[in-house]
Amino acid sequence: MSVAEIEVIWLTLKTALVSTVLTIPIAVWLGWIMARKRLRFKAVLEALISLPMVVPPVVTGYLLLLTLGRNSAVGNTLYNMFGWQFTFNFAALVLASLVVSLPLAVRSIRSAFEMVNPAYENAAATLGAPPLATFFRISLPLALPGIISGVVLSFARSLGEFGATITLAGNIFGKTQTVALMIYSNMQVPGSEMQVMRLVIFSILLSVAAIAASEWFSKKNRYLRK
Fold it and tell me: Where do the domains of the chain lie, and which CATH numbers do they carry?
């Protein structure tokens, strides 16, 4: 592989890792709320969470650009007050990946919490355990396989993100060009077929490895719970 390909691969991995780390607490919180809480506008919340999963990724990126671009009220305020910018930089890459991959993580984690028998949580509450202790000592460990699965799905989705990324972060080589964007760019350049194929093979192998790791951890946790 060329130096340029290695740099793009590293940027893609770094983006996916940072995005996934930021996604975990948000997805766990939302998944638990959707599984355990009775909210008046629960259907609306669920629709908003799932929206990036069903609309074209370009639409998601465009809405983020309208909301956080320098010409928007929110984006301009954040830049003037804190110097934060969420367009055409690494922060934009992470934000686009986070928003697009979050629904997959939330759905998996919600299902995991729904499979936890509430009787265990009720028993802990009866014995005087505070809600926070019950969550971290009972609910979270029992839901761990589903949480791992959601984390891996989020990571894999971030690796292949394209539409929202190119809209919010652009396709700037050395700055915001990920593997997916490099494949897209080189597909239009004659003589770049081998480079495209190498990146495609890398993407497939990494995705397969992530899914295999998820299955291994899930089986290991199921075995430990027996």
Answer: 3-118+144-225 (1.10.3720.10)
pTM of the entire predicted model: 0.88
Contact criterion met (CB below 8 Å) for 93 and 39: no
124: nearest Cα among 145, 104, 142: 142
Residue 221 confidence (pLDDT) above 60? no
The string of DSSP codes covering the chain is --HHHHHHHHHHHHHHHHHHHHHHHHHHHHHHHHHH---TTHHHHHHHHHHHHHS-HHHHHHHHHHHHSTTSHHHHHHHHHH----SSSHHHHHHHHHHHHHHHHHHHHHHHHHTS-HHHHHHHHHTT--HHHHIIIIIHHHTHHHHHHHHHHHHHHHHT--HHHHHHT---TTTT--HHHHHHHHHTSTT-HHHHHHHHHHHHHHHHHHHHHHHHHHHHHHHHH-
pLDDT in tens, 166-192: 999 999 988 999 999 999 988 888 888
- The DSSP code for 171 is -
User: Which one-letter amino acid corresponds to residue 145?
Assistant: P
pLDDT in tens, 9-63: 999 999 999 999 999 999 999 999 998 888 888 888 888 999 998 899 999 999 9
